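User: quick one, fold this
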Amino acid sequence: MVPRFWRKIKYRYDVVASYCENCGNYYYPQREICPKCRRKGKIKDAKICDEGRVLSYTILDGKCIALVELENGTKMLTEVCGKVEIGSKVRKAFRRYGEESEDGIIYYGTKFVPIESDKKQKA
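Assistant:
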């Protein structure tokens, strides 16, 4: 049985960014100090946007790792499930990361999927 505290970690199943109330910029990974405002900045946790577009990507060990720019300007490296091209629109999706063993813990989290292929799968 998985301890409750492990499941309740706020960024266990979703991605959390930082938002500076002083300059209005979002940052991922999270920051304690705003890179732009420095100590004048007021940092808060922020959920990332659901959609973005691929700026660049590479294939590593059969996985597509992409630099995605989200709607609010946040940029992040993430895995994209499916075929993409530079400029492809993607949205976040809850997916399996892996498992410890056949009988072990299965890890889930946020990945991204192309929006066009996601619409075809629902049809």
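User: anything notable?
Assistant: The longest strand covers residues 89-99.
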